[in-house]
Amino acid sequence: MLKKIVGLTAGLAFALGAAGAANAQYPERAVTIVVPFSAGGNSDVIARIVADHMSGELGQPVVVENRGGGGGTVGASMVAGAEPDGYTLLLATAGTHSVNPGLRDVGYDPIEDFDPISVAVISSVLLVVHPSVEAETAEELIELTSSGEGQFNYASGGIGTVAHVAGELYNEMTGSQLVHVPYQGAGAALNDVVAGRIHVYMNNIPAILTHVRSGALRPLALAADERSNLLPDVPTTGEVGLEGFEMGSWFGIVAPAGTPDEAVTRLHEAMASMKDSEKVKERLEAVGSEVAVSESPEVFGEYMREQLSWWADVLDNPAFRE
Q1: Residues of the signal sequence (predicted)?
Q2: Could you tell me the CA-to-CA distances from 287 to 33, 51, 238, 290, 298 in Å, in that order?
Q3: Which of 106, 210, 262, 263 has its CA 20 to 30 Å from the CA of residue 126?
Q4: CA dist 218 to 143, 226, 301, Å?
């Protein structure tokens, strides 16, 4: 009889334990966000701001792990093959999920291998000129560069970069012939723009904002649907006659495909509250970025598909291939 009671007690304890485990609230332990780039860069800074906020919302540590290499493909591939349990996430970017897949085989499907959580930051391209350029507005620049009088150039950090694509689109949409001057990296390109050796530059706001605020560069238009709170007096490309020129980089959180719905929902909730956090807004604005949270994981997924398609069409051009 005693054996039966012990057996029943043990069985009941096991059942209750199993039920407790099944009903356990996600997350029960630390969550890792893999940044597919080296520490210290813009992606790393954004990931750490997002991780700090999510940690407070989830009640568990959210740690950042840098896995650079292959232009972001090494870290992205690692997360694509990780256990889909909600504890390994990726800071996906326009590079890892929109641009690189259109240029080469990256070893993962940017849509099918991941479950979207939410975008965190969208960083639009800013069109600037050196103050020596005789154009106070984007309209004046377009008139100047499309007139055929004089030769003007623009810089990029290399073939196929955001700055290169933006410059080619500008030429195509305005009938201009800006000469492309590619550099070995965005830093070298920006240095020559500030020095006045380059006339025109188009890149994401964070890369340029400090020089704009110092007066070293003149902002003419933002390639976005809406004006930025960072530069409220700068018109959008649509406002200056360049409809369809909206472009830039995005940063968001994704999980391996097959992650439980409960985890996806909880993670999205943790990110959604960023838009109401003054701390997050201040930290992002300090690095030239703004909060841009998706309404739902599904909305983010659709945005990812649209961006992949847009970049695939744009990059189907020999000019963007080395």
Answers
A1: 1-24
A2: 20, 16, 25, 9, 28
A3: 106
A4: 17, 19, 35
What is the residue whose two structure tokens read 């004089």? 150
CATH number corresponding to 31-123+248-320: 3.40.190.150
In 3D space, the residue among 118, 44, 108, 52 whose CA is nearest the CA of residue 81 turns out to be 108
Structural tokens at position 29: 């332990």
Single out the residue of 231, 270, 254 nearest to residue 307, CA to CA: 254
Any idea which residue has 């993962």 for tokens? 108
Pairing mode of beta strands 200-204, 114-129: antiparallel
**Rg of the chain on CA atoms, in Å:** 23
pTM above 0.90, yes or no: no
SS3 category, 259: coil
Picking from 196, 151, 202, the residue whose alpha carbon sits closest to that of residue 173 is 202
pLDDT digits (tens, 9 = 90+) for 20-40: 443 469 999 999 999 999 888
Asked if pLDDT for residue 173 goes beyond 50, the answer is yes
CA–CA separation, 256 vs 312, rounded Å? 23
Q: Regarding beta strands 218-223 and 179-182, do their DSSP bridges make them parallel or antiparallel, or are they unpaired? A: unpaired
Distance CA 189, CA 210 (A): 15
What is the distance between the alpha carbons of residues 92 and 57, in angstroms, rounded to a whole number?
Answer: 21
Q: Which CATH class is domain 124-240?
A: alpha beta
Task: Name the nearest CA neighbour of 225 among 308, 124, 95.
Answer: 124
- Quote the tokens at residue 220: 């003419």
Beta bridge partners, 126, equal: 203, 222
